[in-house]
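To whoever is on call:

I kicked off a structure prediction for a single chain this morning and the downstream step that reads the tokens threw a length-mismatch warning. I double-checked the sequence; it's 479 residues and nothing unusual in it as far as I can see. Pasting both halves so you can look.
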Amino acid sequence: MNPGEPRRSSGRASGGASRGSSGRAPAGPSPRRIAFDVVHAVARDDAYANLLLPTRIRRARLTGSDAGFATELTYGTLRSRGLYDAVIARAAGRAIDRIDPLALDVLRLGAHQLLGMETPPHAAVDESVRLARQVGAPRAAGFVNAVLRRVGERSLDEWQTLLTAGVSSVRGILAIRHAHPEWVVDALADALAAEGRGAELDALLAADNDPPRVTLVALPGLAEPLAADDPSRTRYSPLGVRSRSGDPAADPEVTSGVRRVQDEGSQLAALALSRARPATPGERWLDLCAGPGGKAALLAAEARAAGAQLVANEAVPQRAELVRRALAPVAPEVEVRAGDGRTIGDTEPGAFDRILVDAPCTGLGALRRRPEARWRKSADDVAPLAALQRELLTAALDAVAPGGLVAYVTCSPHPEETRAVVDAALATRADATALDTPAILSRIVREPLDLGPGTAAQLWPHRHGTDAMFIQLIERAAH
């Protein structure tokens, strides 16, 4: 496989006419139509594919190869959208902003079938023309046919060679070959270089394009304890387990809420705070930016086991409601608030023993599972996010009690969102110290983690198989 080529999956089950694996036309929307609806909602409404697609698949009652086809077509198209847009612009002879949005999303889906899947070319083109008519762009059918036939005249490798001709920088070439915006490549390269791992950039970008396996967290004291010899256990988290099927909802413990879909890196971020040292009964814990509630559920289970009390705060009322729903089956006693986390240091100074600051960020660490995220943000988003992150961390350091712990966490390895935020906060605080987070994690994980230098723990998809979570534990000095 070409190093920049999206992972291929067979489109033969639905590669000809839009038919189910039984050979009969499906009663509901076809896999291609579902993929179009999700891709178009992402482009038009900033929808989140990982939330919308499973719902659409369930409603259409797609299973087996049809569900797999819709999933690969959706995520693969979103993941490589920037690359496919460049291919489409060349093949169409016009800029993509001059192409009707409906036709453009049909072309993106067709390009992925031609260049990223094993769909027979005639099926990819013919079904894309049919789709254009179905979604309200009948006048564009001939245009779609012509453009995709030109796209199919070259392989992905040939298109990449054509698009990178004249690009002088290595990072620019990697950006095209791995379908990442160049500013993202620059940020990831700088983060790796800070650890002395600059040579791993190609491997990291490739890992971002590999769909992750679904992992679950078994909430302690609620889910069945994991057997020590369970082969489905994850490498690092003592509570992690790999989903036995592609549909976690088939697990009754997931249905009941005592197991949750959660990346192993997110599990370690929460456990770094809850298990950094033994808790004293009666401690107060705070999840400062709790939405949508995944880490809050794990912290709630950990707090209950330790005799501690958790408070969950979320700035956006709608997301606070998501936190309530996430906690209701397992920890209805948790107080959930909707408020600006930046004020917590003024309203409740020194009131909490442990605080998790899972700060809003660019999300560059979760590009495997949120394929559209790389195209949703821009370099201009980093500075205001970093300013917000500094304010949240400063507020948390004011709200934590003397001798208490703060965990600063981002699902981004961008240097301006990670080490720079911590350094800026600590530069003004004589009463706060960065703890050796890798050493603390080494007492928690099942297998040793190969982490970089310094007091922070930076996880990586290509090294650890997790999202690129950044974790820094900070202790406020005791009086």
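Update from on-call: the warning came from a stale cache, not from the record. Cleared it. Sanity check on the structure: The radius of gyration is 23 Å.
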